[in-house]
Amino acid sequence: MMRKFFTLLSLSAVLAFVGCDENFNDKVADDVRDASQGTAENIREGHDAAADMVRTADGKTWDGSAETKVGEAKADALENVGEAKADAVEAAGERKADAIEDR
Questions:
Q1: How far apart are CA 54 and CA 77, in angstroms?
Q2: Positive/negative CA dihedral, 27, 29, 35, 38
């Protein structure tokens, strides 16, 4: 009984690893993805910090938003621009990584 169990377990492990071998292009593509995601995260953080500075300058309410609608609109616009730029960087990185994998 135990022998069959270990045989089945070993077979499952072997089947799980078949086709999982990463080649050089896959590793380079993963590095490209990681770099683009890191850059995108830095862009988001920078725009979020700028939006926070706008809210602070306008005067923050107890819930963290700006006191005036104009101040909150400016802060939201900064966050939206940052999100759009970050999404574009991630998409470009993904396209580049896909091209590397297809070589």
A1: 11
A2: negative
Q: What is the pTM of this model?
A: 0.75
- pLDDT, tens digit, 9 for 90 and up, residues 25-72: 999 999 999 999 999 999 999 999 999 999 999 999 999 999 999 999
* Buried/exposed 23-41: b ≥16 CB within 10 Å, e otherwise: eeeeeebeebbeebeebbe
